[in-house]
Design brief:
By secondary structure, this protein is of the alpha/beta class. The chain contains 9 helices and 11 strands. Bound molecules: S-adenosylmethionine.
Length: 280
């Protein structure tokens, strides 16, 4: 993966970005068939550059090459409804997230092990939940890192993001022992995050119908990331950490793995939130 760096990127930003993601810098050459990043002004974009559709075994995708991708947390934040108390009875995700905590125990702490575009993480933060998010895709993690960086500079959203959103470019299952210690040892600002109350998983299922997702999400997840075939391993990792709840977002038609039947399920129209209580 490359960072095309023919623009004026602030040197310290360029350094921390390329070091965090081990990217090579090219001053001018745009690759013909592989994705690459650019900074336009202050914003990072991913150019998909006619990547192959993995579901069609190396045949070039029939979709026209999509416009460059970037994530904008400030815009996403504005679109999330705060979730008033009277909605709790209707919204299946809010119901799944409702746990009992004493006031002196601080806010709910949640791990979003499948951060994706960051939309669900931002939804949790808007509900007052402290969120630690993992994303393993080398395409998506830089976009999340950059969206977090820009949102942190926003006068309104910045303090909330800095206090309540920890992000790590890694595979969640690689974190086991460090998540059992309090406070977490493996992250910068770790004193702000102790062991989780809830672990949320939203692995990618192979879509039942091609048009099951909105266009942008379809491009991101089916063209770029692909289905998460190891989702049973991820669920077993989450249960083993013994939070109060593990919530798995699944399409309404998807069955849980054998022998891992949820304790309860909160049903929406197209998705359900299968919920496990590992300590019962
Ligand atoms: C369906 S998307 C999640 C969408 C997300 N909830 C959102 O709000 O956009 C699944 C994402 O989880 C990531 N993922 C799957 N398994 C993971 C793991 N073990 N560790 C870190 N990321 C993982 C994939 O790379 C993919 O980006």
């Amino acid at each position: 993966m490359l960072l095309i760096s023919n623009q004026n990127i602030e040197p310290s930003l360029k350094k921390s970005f390329t070091e965090t993601f081990s990217l090579k810098i090219s001053e001018d050459k745009v690759p013909r068939n592989s994705p690459y990043f650019t900074f336009s002004g202050d914003k990072l974009s991913l150019h998909l550059n006619n990547i192959m559709d993995s579901s069609e075994e190396k045949k070039p995708s029939k979709m026209p090459s999509p416009s460059p991708l970037s994530f904008d947390f400030i815009d996403t934040w504005k679109r999330i409804k705060p979730g008033p108390k009277n909605q709790r009875k209707k919204d299946p995700l809010l119901k799944a997230l409702t746990i009992k905590k004493n006031n002196d125990e601080g806010p709910i702490r949640l791990i979003d092990a499948t951060c994706g575009t960051g939309k669900d993480s931002l939804f949790f933060i808007k509900q007052g939940i402290k969120t630690l998010a993992y994303e393993r895709s080398p395409y998506l993690a830089p976009l999340l890192w950059d969206a977090k960086r820009r949102a942190s500079a926003d006068p309104e959203l910045g303090p909330l993001i800095q206090d309540n959103f920890l992000f790590s470019f890694s595979d969640a299952v690689k974190h086991q022992e460090s998540l059992k210690s309090e406070p977490l040892a493996s992250l910068p600002n770790s004193s702000k995050f102790k062991t989780p109350d809830i672990i949320f998983l939203d692995p990618m299922f192979p879509p039942k119908r091609k048009k099951a997702l909105p266009k942008k999400e379809m491009v991101i997840f089916s063209e770029l990331v692909g289905p998460d075939h190891d989702q049973e391993t991820l669920l077993r990792w989450a249960l083993d950490l013994r939070p109060q709840r593990v919530i798995v977002k699944r399409p309404i038609w998807a069955d849980p793995p054998e022998n891992l039947v949820p304790d309860t399920s909160y049903q929406g129209k197209t998705v359900k939130f299968d919920t496990y209580f590992p300590n019962l």
